[in-house]
Write a structure and sequence with these properties.
The protein is α/β, with parallel strands linked by helices and 305 residues long. Helices cover 41% and strands 17% of the residues. The chain has one domain: 3-Layer(aba) Sandwich (Rossmann fold). A hairpin with a 2-residue loop joins strand 1 and strand 2.
Amino acid sequence: MSNTEPHTTNDKDVREELPVFRSEEIRTQLMAIYDEALRRWPVPFETFFVPTRYGNTHVIACGDPASPPLLMLHLAAVGGFVWSSIIAPLSDKRRVYALDTIGDVGKSELTDPSRYPKTGREYTAWLDDVHERLNITRADVVAGSMGGWIAMNHAIYAPYRVRRLVLLGPMGLPAWRTTLAVLVPFAWYRVRPTEAKFDRIIFRSLGEGARVNREFRPWMKIMGQTKPLVGQPINIPARRLGMIKSRTLVILGGKDGLIGSATAAAKRARNIPGCEIEILPNAGHLMSVDEPEFVSARIVNLLEY
């Protein structure tokens, strides 16, 4: 008779959460939405992973490989697919690399969930790895919200990497009080989640636009069950904003529920030397979806001239 004991499953193992997504079911649902968005991507593209010190970073690449490089850094809790509304005119002029931020709710894969970038300097180290793997010395950068905070830090810590910088509703510009007004509801929702709380978060994030709600509300409803492993996009002091040397364009939405007062954010943006500022009175936090024609034309103008 064999002395081998029957295999038993530890209840703790059954309940163990998947990093970031918390469960395979949630990950599958979100990746189905992501893949469907890629099927609607308006230009030819390829996807691949590049290894970094934190894990494999997912890249959506499009445009002529011989064109100058452009990195795109997305808003928190989405992925590179968020840029589909403006990708066509940008990839006509640049070789675009739309990254999925490591540790966020996308296709990038953390090697060790206990080790992920939390500070601006650490995100810069991650982007340095991406540059090396893509064989890029210097690139233009277009970034939104949390991606904007990462990009500003990148321009501060690695100015030789950033040619021109476009920031769409970037976190890091609002005053401390405004930033806390954004972060605290998210933290409170994590402690005691309710549908009503998250509906308020979605409204602040997406605004009232029909297109942005149609395209991103299904993702947001599921994303609320995840636990991204990312840093906190805290206020960047004026003296550090003054260290950004790249030619910079900041576009703000007059109805942005996360950035708050566009006028106040614009005032802080002026700490960036020579910063160009546009305020779109009717746009929300995802102005690239609310007003894609203006946003894409303005970006192309900055990159080309």
